[in-house]
Amino acid sequence: MVTFKDIFKKSFVEGYSGIEITATTILVALIIATLLAIYIFYIYRSVTRKTFYSQSFNISLVGVTIITAAIILVMQSSVVLSLGMVGALSIVRFRTAIKDPMDLMFLFWAISTGIICGAGLAQVAVILSSIITIVIILLNKIPVIKAPVILVVNTTDIDVESRIIEKVKKHTKYFEIKSRNMTQSTLDMVIELNVKDGGELVRDVMRTDGVVSVALLSHNGDAAF
Fold it and tell me: How far apart are CA 65 and CA 109, in angstroms?
């Protein structure tokens, strides 16, 4: 005797049994995903502003795109495989920290492209890649606010601070004393400031009586408005 429970189970399995995916569908989806992944590879290499370009991370973007597309294709073919895949991926933990927000954006771009291509919506992936590229190019053309620099002054006169500040004020409107390190006979100062002509500032401060050395350092901190 067939019960309502059996009918419900049968309809659930039939409704979510998945779709048949041919070898041609798989090949086309993976080829499109690969082409878009290579496109992402070249865009990342062109726009990255890192001092040291990470080729291994860039190559991993290509791999992530293709692998994600393959996973989505498998998940479409069978509900059982999709549930097993979700369970298997849920126990994976990635502990590599991504320090640059731009890297995180490219990683999500690669994953999204793989998902979209695997779902058979290649047109959406192409449009997405085109829009992201245009946005990156336009935003890269916006002038970047100049980041402040660090002025390090070493002196043998503990009363020279006021004279140093006067000379700093001549070259910049914005400055902030970050630290003072004083002994009975020496004074070391660290000043954050914005300056157009760093060389002239260093020479001017160096002419101050009691100043032993002056260093001007740049850093990758937040830009000051």
Answer: 9
Which regions of the chain are under pLDDT 50? 2, 4, 7-8, 11-12, 15-16, 224-225
Tokens 């369970």 appear where?
87
pTM of the model: 0.61
Closest CA to 207 of 172, 174, 173, 163: 163
Nearest to 175 by CA among 163, 193, 199: 193
Q: Where are the domains of the chain?
A: 4-140, 149-218
Which class is 149-218 in CATH? alpha beta
Q: What is the pLDDT of residues 37-53, one digit of tens each?
A: 999 999 998 888 655 67
CA distance 70 to 119: 10
User: Counting runs of H as helices and runs of E as strands, what totals does the chain give?
Assistant: 8, 4
DSSP 128-161: HHHHHHHHHHHHHTSPPPPPPEEEEEEES-TT-H
pLDDT in tens, 86-110: 665 665 566 666 777 788 889 899 9
Rounded Cα gap, residues 157 and 159, in angstroms: 5
